[in-house]
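The protein record filed here:
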Amino acid sequence: MRGLFVTGTDTGVGKTFVACALARGLRTAGIDVGVMKPIETGVPPTGPEDARALQSAAGVEDPLELICPVRFALPASPEAAAQAEKRSVSRADLRKAFEFLSRRHEFMLVEGAGGLLVPLDPHHDMADLARELDLPLLVVARARLGTVNHTRLTLEVAEARGLQVFGVVISHSSVDETEGERRNLDGLRSRLGTRLVLELPHRPADTNPKAPVPAISLLAERLAHALRA
């Protein structure tokens, strides 16, 4: 395995947090990890925040223009954001940037925008990009009502598109889960089986975002061991 494509069941589920924590864990395990946020929308004048967070987490000196080749100001799908600026997404440019970075690094973490069916243009979506980069998926799911449907749909799309799924991460955004949410999650865990690679407990807002996450550190060690086997 030469890398992972981090996707989510929705927007705002914690993809960047997981990708950054995993990048730090891989570095600690002695892996030379490269990172990409191929497309970032909702970019302020100061630059792409998710891409900068990934760059810092991986400790790389790669140019931000390669880490995040395509940026749009509108916080919307890449297709909608590109239309707002009368631009288009060049998948060829994305592949070139990925190929350049993958030659420089032992392992690549690529964070998508939103979920697998988020459109890049009228004919392609994030699932197409993941397939072109030939990376297995790490799916981040939110531990809230609706996650059973969202997660199962994501996995069915991945299977239909011929995408390999490395595993699923369930991210808890709150400690105040309802009984319905807890029971739904029990059912989801049972359905996922070994595809559930870790669960992230709720982290208070004042937690240092750069602090090690034990569960992700263990996953990073597992990946490092597989790379060296």
The chain has a mean pLDDT of 92. Strands lie at 3-8, 33-36, 39-40, 70-71, 107-111, 119-121, 124-125, 137-142, 165-171, 196-200. Residues 56 and 190 are 36 Å apart (CA to CA). The chain has nine helices and ten strands.
